[in-house]
Design a protein that fits this description.
The protein contains seven helices and eleven strands. It is of the alpha/beta class. The N and C termini lie far apart (53 Å). The structure holds dTDP-4-amino-4,6-dideoxyglucose (0FX). DTDP-4-amino-4,6-dideoxyglucose binds next to helix 5.
Length: 244
């Protein structure tokens, strides 16, 4: 039986918009789609009408279970509680290739640990970025990538996978493969632990360039060292340009 009442819960306005474009182009119009965000996201950042769901509140969980039969997490920053996962089909779009890049900011750790990377659509289970895999594909990773350039390639791959697989997910005709192993998982704390550059530590040139590439992402202030006189944080990024 196909799904009908679909909730998209997200904290990423770009992906919400892309999702909206994909559903506008679906040939089968028999579905209803509602969008929601987390309490810490701002509704004004989202083009479409959004509800707010707090997945720590049992009344919100009960409401979701009663209203929807399929839920997409497209970069929703809340953990889906087991009560929700066991009562409604929940699907996650992850900016990493499961199980190699589970967890937080996967492209950062892919650069640091030289891991292959891509994007995954999977069913949510009780562990992070872990359930049965519906679709996954690798993206290229280059020595001249920063976190931002690699992230943008992964986002494009996520949209591409959604485009290809959304009809069969809605029809409930997709198939899954199980992750081969537990893979790698990095958390927000692991990202925070990367940020400080110790001026007295010996890094190889490669290690230091990789650390700076992994922490260079648009205007975010990530990597830093401490000013030798004042002890203030000095943020540092890297600028890379391939010889054309
Ligand atoms: O929404 P999202 O792209 O993804 C994150 C997690 O990486 C992902 O595993 C999880 N499923 C999802 C719910 O949340 O995160 P974002 O929009 O906050 O950040 C996008 C990129 O920006 C991130 O990959 C790295 C970069 N960034 C972000 C922040 C806030 C930084 O480099 N520094 C930062 O302080």
């Amino acid at each position: 039986m196909s799904f009908n009442k679909v909730l998209i819960i997200s904290d990423n306005a770009y992906l919400c918009n892309e999702f909206k474009k994909i559903i506008e182009n679906l040939s089968n119009k028999n579905y209803s789609f509602d969008f929601a965000i987390s309490p810490f996201s701002k509704p004004k950042d989202f083009d479409n009408q959004v509800d707010i769901y707090d997945l720590k509140k049992s009344e919100d969980i009960k409401e979701i279970i009663s209203r929807f039969d399929l839920i997409f997490s497209i970069h929703c920053k809340q953990i889906f509680p087991i009560e929700l996962v066991e009562n409604v089909k929940c699907i996650n779009i992850h900016p990493g290739y499961n199980p190699i890049n589970r967890g937080w900011y996967p492209q950062v750790f892919s650069i640091i640990h030289d891991l292959p990377i891509g994007a995954t659509i999977h069913e949510i289970d009780n562990k992070l970025d872990h359930g049965p895999i519906i679709a996954r594909e690798f993206v290229e990773k280059y020595d001249y990538d920063t976190s931002e350039s690699l992230y943008n390639r992964i986002l494009a791959k996520e949209v591409d996978l959604l485009n290809k697989y959304l009809p069969q997910i809605l029809e409930n005709t997709y198939s899954v493969v199980m992750p081969e192993n537990e893979g790698n998982i990095y958390l927000k704390k692991d990202f925070n632990d990367l940020l400080k550059i110790d001026l007295d530590k010996n890094y190889s040139a490669g290690e230091l360039i990789d650390k700076l590439r992994a922490l260079t992402h648009g205007s975010y202030s990530n990597a830093y060292f401490l000013d030798r006189k004042t002890g203030e944080k000095i943020f540092v990024g890297i600028n890379l340009k391939k010889d054309e």
